[in-house]
Design goal:
This protein has five helices and two strands. It is mostly helical and about 150 residues long. The protein has a two-stranded antiparallel ribbon with strand order 1-2. The radius of gyration is 15 Å and the shape is globular.
């Protein structure tokens, strides 16, 4: 296993621990001055990883579209997310990295469409994408922590 993939898994477990005591209403609340909420940020992590790794490699995403399109960059929450949907988002957040790890080990990522990120980083390979994910998820942990103080 690549150490960075384990780091991502650990980070995602930490995020779920961070929000475990929040209510469904708190997870869905969009505080004044923000354009999204905690549950959107959590679901966005799965969507972003799928986009960076699978789509940029010319592959189909490995999650259902309901966990992808509504949570891509540039979107915002469109509906109240129920408790069963939240639990499924949490499950997909963790399981998607297990599936990715298997796919990566099986060598399915043979091509990659280079991508310049707005943070001054250029992703030229699947390994670059994997190494970018902890940075991206760290930013969203910051957003989640800020939102948590306001809900």
């Amino acid at each position: 296993m690549q150490p960075t993939i384990q780091q991502i898994k650990n980070t995602r477990k930490y995020i779920l621990e961070l929000v475990k005591d929040l209510s469904v209403e708190q997870l869905n609340k969009i505080p004044e001055g923000f354009n999204n909420n905690i549950i959107w940020n959590i679901a966005h992590l799965t969507a972003a990883q799928q986009n960076m790794c699978y789509v940029r490699s010319g592959l189909n995403i490995a999650v259902e579209d309901q966990h992808f399109t509504p949570f891509l960059s540039g979107t915002k929450p469109e509906k109240f997310i129920t408790e069963p949907e939240i639990n499924f988002i949490y499950e997909v957040l963790l399981n998607s990295m297990d599936s990715f790890e298997t796919d990566y080990s099986n060598g399915i990522f043979v091509q990659f469409d280079p991508w310049s990120k707005r943070y001054g980083m250029k992703l030229n390979s699947i390994e670059d994408a994997i190494n970018f994910i902890p940075f991206h998820e760290g930013m969203h942990i910051g957003y989640i922590m800020a939102l948590k103080k306001l809900v």
